[in-house]
């Protein structure tokens, strides 16, 4: 028996529906159909009236979730793809993000964003938007990389009074499996040391955690380098304590992410490490992101657009040779 | 509605005197529409999302004068504590939403609140209402929100105050249908039309729409035709509105019409109304005076926290 | 339309054989509607923004078979060079727009192209057309775009292919009006309704709407009722569509209807049609075979430039 | 005789309408009314049919501008406030930004974004969105800080084949004046050294250039520090040559911006200086942004939300004391 990443998301929603009458699900094709990725399969039957199909109206979907949250509910909104949240952008960044600051009334919505690239998905079904939403005060942005985190962080996101963008990586949906949900007790907002090492630190999140570990394994095998991998888990807030402690141990930093190269998580982490822990660095920090184009469609191009174990190893060798 | 006019007249002169923090947007000429809506709703029971010209509706719904005075005069005691201002004020926990500027954005939010009531089993006899301008009907938010409310058959009342202009833009640059009322059918919601300068008609039609929604008749859309009798904001002289329009039927002041209607129907005498007016003027004056003396927001006492307290999260300071 | 069906049947089996790069979304059952639109438009003269079920319209408009074959089979010679795929292909310089996935987004873009023609004095006799699904009508983009086209009185033709479902979502969770046709009046555009399974009716009504727009009749909205005779994509079995619906009038295959209509009207004999079919099958086969042999995109030859060349700008590599 | 920043924007548009028949203007209330800020005053009369009022439909406005640009026009779109571009976000980042990469056909639109805070404008009429748009491949983001740049960069934005977000700062509209338009020939994409110095560099853009210069003057007067101020002018692309050359001279870096603190221009510049010019730094780099809340309404709060000469001086003294 094993459970996949997307199953964990489904089970978390089932648990939430079971435990908390304030929870309901809203999204396109999530009811009887169970969602484009089957993340809500069977839930409509088990919880009638609490798993609702929405029209193709992302702006209204977010607005309605916000209204229901103001009125005491805990909606979980499924975007069919993260990319379509661009249509609900205004409600997310201007209504949800500002409401608590303006009125003192929190807006506990959780917006599930199926994120990241898969081969053949193209420019509009592959986007990683964590770097966009994290810019806005008032939003919490979480990016689970493991099966247990997918479960646990969804439970905690819904428990949080603030609006959460829950970025789930489509590439991990069925590929990532665990024997069972087994959480190590880290709360939302804390990073995890996924792999210990002492020669350099890779700070990353979501699917790239696995690519980083692959690269680290390879560097160890091939050259004996011991690379530490930090999984941020939430990109806003950022757990700088864990990041700085790791950099203090290793003296070398690569930040790694799948979103576009200008700004974003990798820039924020480098900027904060350099401002807050400049003296810890023995070498210039490095960044690795996707390329500065839309996500290409053809798998040949896609594979070269995002960071890979190969490109991570190249960057790490440069970093280590400094 | 009389209170609203008194209040706004005062705000306009305070604005001219430079005493107001930020802009002033008035509902002059739109009080009959707005107050008919607000007055049909119950405080802490229904939901009301006013827009920029809804002082009339706010007052009628039950908003405290002081909330208004404090926000305009920058008192930290106001409901927004200086973080947001004037027409953006609200008390969401009491059912009075605090608008964001983006037009149309309130439509799905009210809808969502009604959906919450249904899910909680508390929808019975509840109405959610919002106003929007002719210009606001061109937003995707209006369309998506109204459509979603119609699909859910929720008791949403949308009042379109068609004051013929969106800022300076006339109706013919805003939409091409003959009457915005024609849109109701396309959403599958009940449609109504009313002369927004006629107080009794507003009471009847808007009150009727609210009653229908309350009784389970599903979403309602009311289109009220009128003119605003002020500029877009107090910085604007509204000179793009043709004199012929001002001189015509839509240009009549709903307050004058209402006064006449009350007198004619024997609801009140001219003297009684004058009495109310001076009493209200007094109340307005007192509220403004109180607010003016209160403390202003102070950055050193501001928490600067956009997220609600959550000790479990290592939020950045 | 026959070519489209041949092509798509072939694509479906290539998909099952794992030979296609990415997803496959078919227009099976929607060819009569789509081809009636595409066939009324002139390549390099009009503007056409197809959506996911418009192979029929693409072919009829004049798109080269090879463009399709190359995109599905991942040839770098295709119009999108591997950067985007399949249904997203287009040749904007020839008037065939390349859709983004976000539903509704094409409506204002076509409108903008028509506005450009007007500003250049080249609008005379030009039409811009796009298709949208029942689900797509719920987007703010559809509303804002159609409204803006109506305000500008541009010759935009929007064909709503109401196939009763948006992915798995039935009409009654998508909108609450009796008929989407009822929306036309609310935008001030001419409205039309047609049985989308009836080829001759489609030719007449959709062709008529295009002719009206071309003749200066302003924006047109056609609602065609039909069913898609495939899943949402080839990964989907469409099992949420009730059998009764499939067995009813809307479930009939427009290709069968068209064949019968051609034969009945004496336009062609059954043998002639069969002849076309096998000739087209051949052409489709050849195009696919050619594309299959072509080079695939190579990251080392890709420019990785999102902006057009501009030597004056010190762009980041 | 002098010309204000907003007049320069108006004159540039007049010049463009005069010189290029492909140019037209589209936006709310921009025709006879001349726009909320009078940036198009008189142009509708002078160029009939080429200055068009739009409905309140930001999504369609951007979509239409894109369509017209595909068809050979050079539209200039006025957003009434930058904040409302959130409604047109999808068309900007998914249609305009990707079109050239996908199809090879460029989309030469210029979107004017009245940006930045002024006292009493509140959370929805004060935003600085350059950090959001710059994240997206395919977009050029310009942020003029001077009257002459406001003019010249608008002319060059329209000449560019790629989509440009032209961020004009509302605070500068009438406050900033110059005797005449007088351009130094710097092309789009090049930064400017606004003030020379040798003890530290402030990298900034838009209205903050003026606050930086004020702070620098004060530090010079009070303590003899000579601070260099670099005006980025365009935030994407970033002119790292000029930035690195300045840091090479001074050894100390503060990045300064008015948008929200997570990610954005200040993070990107620090991250790139640290990656590309680590050895040039004699002290940890510093960043100064607005606070991590929506922009508050009351002038007392607003003034403490954005960086000021006072807060810049404090940050600089820390930087210099290192
Ligand atoms: C989405 C959006 N775009 C632009 C604006 C700027 N704006 C504020 S009020 C206004 C005019 C509104 O006109 P209308 O809806 O008719 O209401 P009225 O002012 O006439 O009452 C505009 C364009 C806005 N608030 N929201
Ligand atoms: C804005 C947006 N939201 C969600 C989607 C995902 N999506 C793709 S096709 C589809 C269903 C479309 O239904 P409809 O418009 O009726 O067209 P049909 O597939 O039936 O032809 C959905 C939800 C999308 N493409 N765009
Ligand atoms: Mg109006
Ligand atoms: Mg459909």
From TrEMBL, chains A, D:
Keywords, ordered alphabetically: Oxidoreductase, Thiamine pyrophosphate
Gene source species: Haloferula rosea
Xref: InterPro entries: THDP-binding, Transketo_C/PFOR_II, Transketolase-like_Pyr-bd, Transketolase_C
Annotated Pfam families: Transket_pyr, Transketolase_C
Gene Ontology MF annotations: oxidoreductase activity
Annotated Transketolase-like pyrimidine-binding domain residues: 3-175
Descriptive protein name: Alpha-ketoacid dehydrogenase subunit beta
Cofactor: thiamine diphosphate
Automatic annotation (TrEMBL), chains B, C:
Keywords from the UniProt entry: Oxidoreductase, Thiamine pyrophosphate
Single GO BP term: pyruvate decarboxylation to acetyl-CoA
Gene3D superfamilies assigned: 3.40.50.970
InterPro entries according to UniProt: DH_E1, PDH_E1_Alpha_Subunit, THDP-binding
Region described as Disordered: 291-317
Sequence ranges assigned to domain Dehydrogenase E1 component in this UniProt record: 5-299
A Gene Ontology molecular function term of the record: pyruvate dehydrogenase (acetyl-transferring) activity
Pfam families: E1_dh
Oxidoreductase keyword on record: yes
Cofactor(s) for this UniProt protein: thiamine diphosphate
PANTHER family: PYRUVATE DEHYDROGENASE E1 COMPONENT SUBUNIT ALPHA (PTHR11516:SF60), PYRUVATE DEHYDROGENASE E1 COMPONENT, ALPHA SUBUNIT BACTERIAL AND ORGANELLAR (PTHR11516)
Name of the protein: Thiamine pyrophosphate-dependent dehydrogenase E1 component subunit alpha
Organism: Haloferula rosea
Lineage of origin: Bacteria, Pseudomonadati, Verrucomicrobiota, Verrucomicrobiia, Verrucomicrobiales
């Amino acid at each position: 028996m094993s459970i996949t990443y997307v199953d964990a998301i489904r089970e978390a929603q089932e648990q939430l529906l079971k435990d908390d009458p304030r929870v309901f699900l809203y999204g396109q094709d999530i009811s009887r159909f169970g969602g484009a990725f089957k993340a809500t399969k069977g839930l409509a039957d088990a919880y009638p009236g609490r798993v609702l199909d929405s029209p193709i109206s992302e702006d209204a979907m977010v607005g309605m979730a916000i209204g229901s949250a103001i009125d005491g509910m805990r909606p979980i909104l499924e975007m069919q793809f993260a990319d379509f949240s661009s249509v609900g952008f205004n409600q997310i960044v201007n209504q949800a993000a500002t409401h608590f600051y303006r009125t003192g009334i929190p807006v506990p919505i959780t917006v599930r964003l199926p994120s990241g690239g898969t081969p053949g998905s193209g420019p509009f079904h592959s986007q990683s938007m964590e770097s966009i939403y994290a810019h806005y005060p008032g939003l919490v942005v979480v990016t689970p990389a493991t099966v247990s985190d997918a479960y646990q962080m969804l439970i905690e996101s819904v428990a949080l009074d603030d609006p959460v963008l829950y970025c789930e990586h489509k590439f991990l949906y069925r590929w990532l499996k665990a024997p069972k949900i087994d959480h190590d007790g880290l709360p939302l907002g804390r990073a995890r040391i996924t792999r210990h090492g002492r020669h350099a630190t890779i700070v990353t999140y979501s699917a790239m955690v696995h690519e980083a570990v692959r690269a680290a394994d390879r560097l160890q095998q091939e050259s004996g380098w011991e690379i530490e991998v930090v999984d941020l888990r939430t990109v806003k807030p950022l757990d700088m304590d864990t990041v700085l402690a790791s950099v203090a141990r290793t003296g070398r930093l690569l930040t790694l992410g799948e979103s576009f190269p200008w700004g974003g998580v990798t820039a924020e982490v480098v900027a904060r490490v350099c401002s807050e822990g400049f003296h810890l660095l023995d070498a210039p920090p490095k960044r690795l992101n996707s390329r500065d184009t839309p996500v290409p469609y053809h798998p040949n191009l896609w594979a070269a657009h995002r960071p890979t174990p190969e490109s991570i190893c190249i960057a790490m060798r440069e970093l280590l040779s400094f | 509605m009389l209170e609203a006019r008194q209040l706004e007249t005062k705000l306009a002169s305070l604005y001219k005197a430079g005493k107001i923090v930020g802009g002033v947007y008035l509902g002059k000429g739109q009080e009959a529409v707005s107050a008919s809506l607000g007055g049909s709703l119950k405080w802490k029971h229904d939901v009301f999302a006013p827009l920029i010209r809804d002082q009339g509706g706010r007052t009628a719904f039950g908003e405290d004068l002081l909330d208004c005075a404090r926000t305009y005069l920058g008192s930290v005691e106001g409901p927004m504590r200086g973080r947001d201002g004037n027409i953006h004020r609200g008390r969401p926990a009491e059912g009075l939403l605090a608008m964001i500027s983006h037009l149309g954005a309130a439509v799905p939010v009210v809808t969502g609140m009604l959906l919450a009531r249904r899910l909680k089993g508390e929808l019975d006899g509840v109405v959610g209402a919002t106003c929007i301008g002719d210009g606001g009907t061109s937003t995707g938010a209006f369309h998506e929100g109204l459509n979603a409310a119609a699909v859910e058959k929720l008791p949403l009342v949308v009042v379109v105050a068609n004051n013929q202009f969106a800022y300076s833009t006339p109706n013919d640059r805003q939409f091409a249908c003959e009457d915005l009322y024609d849109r109701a059918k396309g959403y599958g919601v009940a449609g109504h039309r009313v002369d927004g300068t006629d107080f009794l008609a507003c009471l009847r039609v808007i009150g009727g729409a609210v009653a229908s929604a309350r009784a389970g008749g599903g979403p309602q859309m009311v289109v009220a035709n009128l003119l605003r009798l002020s500029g877009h904001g107090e910085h604007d002289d509204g000179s793009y509105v043709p004199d012929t329009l001002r001189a015509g039927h839509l240009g009549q002041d709903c307050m004058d019409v209402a006064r006449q209607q009350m007198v004619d129907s024997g609801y009140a005498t001219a003297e009684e109304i004058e009495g109310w007016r001076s009493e209200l003027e007094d109340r307005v004056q007192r509220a403004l005076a109180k607010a003016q003396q209160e403390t202003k927001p102070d950055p050193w006492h501001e928490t600067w926290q956009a997220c609600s307290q959550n000790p479990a999260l290592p939020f950045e300071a």
